[in-house]
Specification:
Elements lengths: L1 H20 L22 H14 L3 H8 L5 H23 L5 H14 L1 H10 L6 H23 L1
Length: 156
Amino acid sequence: MKFQKVIFSLITIFFLHFISNNAFAISPVVAASSVTADGDRLSAKDEVRIAQMRVFVNMTVEQYGKLRGKKLNFFERLSFKASQRRMKLMLKAYDDGDGPGTLEKISWLIKGLLFGPLALIVGYIFLKDEERELIKWIWFGFIGFAAIAVIILLSL
């Protein structure tokens, strides 16, 4: 009976924490520079990538077609526009400094460690495209979960 209460409490805390992370609409604004949201400086390679992303976002379909050397068909134009929109959202998140913080990464690592496959499923279903870096931390936690499960099974 006590074990069921502990499991119920952990699952409740997990879901309440997930809901509370998505409840806040206000985030701190950081000026766009070569410093990330965590305070780390970007490497020269990352700065070049961001500059290339800004050029790609401002391209027209005709310019992209000339760059590729052929005219884009209907599906390629749709794909180009979708990629451009997604990259525009990524740049906006970078400019706002909305990347996942260290505590959020540790939080998802612990969720992966405690809940294993359940945390992976919830992460893949509910995390947005901008938060896909957190999936990596859930996988790290899941690997720890699997290692603990193997140790427990081998000790029996």
